[in-house]
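Posting here for the record, re: iron/sulfur cluster.
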Amino acid sequence: MVSDLHTLPKIVPAPNGPLYLINDSTQVVANIEDANGQPIKAVMKVALCRCGGSKNKPLCDGTHAALKFSSKNDDTDGSVPPDKRKNYAGKNGITVHDNRRICSHSAECLRNLESVFRLDELPWINPDGGEVPKIIETVRKCPSGALSYSIDGVEYRDDKTRAPKVIVSKNGPYHVTDGIELAGVENWAEGASKEHYALCRCGASKNKPFCDGMHLRIKFTDSLKIDE
Ligand code: SF4
Ligand code: FES
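Prediction output follows.
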């Protein structure tokens, strides 16, 4: 069920600091789990590292201060994809929507349906390359919200069957589900889902707090220790 965006839990990004995951302080809830699907701990409030330097990932250990981590986005080299949602209409009735700005490069789409999501061909999405149910299944696995789809003009973007969770992906971003409120954030991409999204935890994204795939380029790993 999609939670009311004005109720807890919510995520509060601290300027130049961690992401605070705040739960209802009257209840113990276990809505954080590791990449193996195991609960990390039942907590009421937790500070999650987003500078990439904590020696106690995914938890913040204060290293952001020593690193002088900045949560500001710097796109002076123009490498951030434009905030533009593109539509790929198939003859089979499905239109796949895609906004490259928020792709976290998890490659779920390429791995699951390479006849539709094509690494080396243009257009990179070919909705006629696969069966509609398989396209739907694949789009629903997109953790960042970059992909969504419409059938007969009706858009399906949010998964209403998931629990509110922050999943710490292996060597990658935080995958958030079920509309956990992201407080004070305004740079939502065009067409982005607020039900599920990927948050940077390597510190290198140029579209913070969202992941933009930079963790791959900097070879971020959970064990990465950044010199102070
Ligand atoms: S985030 Fe979505 S669009 Fe980007 S590679 Fe993963 S599944 Fe594909
Ligand atoms: S986790 Fe930082 S860019 Fe993906």
